[in-house]
Design goal:
3 domains, nine-stranded mixed beta sheet, disordered C terminus, single chain, EC 6.3.2.10, UDP-N-acetylmuramoyl-L-alanine:D-glutamate ligase, Protein-Tyrosine Phosphatase, Chain A, Udp-n-acetylmuramoylalanyl-d-glutamate--2,6- Diaminopimelate Ligase, Chain: A, domain 1
Amino acid sequence: MTVLWTAAEAAAATGGAVSGDWAATGVSIDTRTLAQGDLFVALTAARDGHDFVAQALDKGAAAAMVSRIPDGVDAARCLLVRDVLDALVALGRAGRARTGARVIGVTGSVGKTTVKEMLRTALSAQGRTHAAEASYNNHWGVPLTLARMPADTEYAVIEIGMNAPGEIAPLARMARPHVAMVTIVAGAHLEAFGTLDGIAHEKASIYEGLEPGGIAIANADVDTAPILCAKAKTLGARLIRVGEAEGADLRLLDARIMDEATVIRAQDGGVERLLKLAAPGRHLALNALMALAGAEAAGADGAETAMALGQWRPVAGRGTRERLVLSQTDDIAIDLIDDAFNANPASLAAGLEVLAGAVPVRGGRRIAILGDMLELGPEAAAMHAAIADLPSLAAVDVVHCSGPLMRHLHAVLPGAKRGLHADTADDLAQRLPRELRPGDIVLVKGSKGSRVSRVVDALRKLGQAAADDRRGPP
């Protein structure tokens, strides 16, 4: 494998000290996913990473970045630094500085991970591409992503998130993107920001990290678009607006939603463009146009990007669709839409729109299983109740809810649509299987903290158990 960091390079980047000669082929913060040859970074968060240094070295780590040498550990296999998180940031900055990659920074209340994965798919077909794993978008995720970037990377996609004011700009300056985009501004983290304008100002601060001559991409459809556009213009960035709004530079003209695909028609200046995604969802159409605009702004070929986007698939927990057989006699099979990773009013509306457009078979129904949307502030109860007024809910047959906030929706649902309510996702998961019928299409959606993904896990386990029963004893 290609060497990512030598001992001397890592020491120079971090200002640390080394007494041995080693070479790392990766960077890891978790012994559970550590690969042989990684530099293990002993971060201190919920647990002290120094307690796992010996285990990491036993598993084949090349070395460990530490602020103290743990008992029984060979100092020659350590990079000794003053503060481990600060050193990881420094390593990330050095990783960014040594590459000639075209870098795209992505933030937004909804869709940033999806757009990042779309860009990974599209750009990988045109050059060596590096992108963040999962949702590594915070104060340790961004430097970790940069520290893992090979020097010969041609395209890099860095996802940048936030939970509180003032977090995005420092991460953007670390990433130094040539292209920076805000996918959407919506009511996520209202508890910390108070208003959508506050969220928009924070999201727009990603443009502060742009390299000279950089390009800012903004959602043209949101009410806070003027805040995004004004920030880009103040910084002297070239602005590209994407959306359905008249005057958008890349304008969505039509999104035809089919059971398992989305056909997109857009206008780019005076040129009409077509592309097709192998997943349903009007929100995915805008995400795809964001990815197209970002790739082209980074210098990639637009036609090749559009073709490659047809190969993109949603990642687990973000709209993946799968068939589960829940009985050994094959008489109960459902289609599961797993969108359980995150939720706010905008993304929940998008998920329900996908469910409303899905076509059940054999008399099946459209079933929504909804967990609490978190961090919405004092209006959280009203925002949950307002879900009942979404037009797409008219096509949903039954809504099951879990959590104290979703009780507000459950209380205002029409009687025919009102399914189960449970205090926790685990309680709902136990009661739910008997409520399902053959042919049902089931959407599971909620904030990660609501743990509604436990329902997905329970349904998958039932499907696996049924499959084992069908196979018989070994």
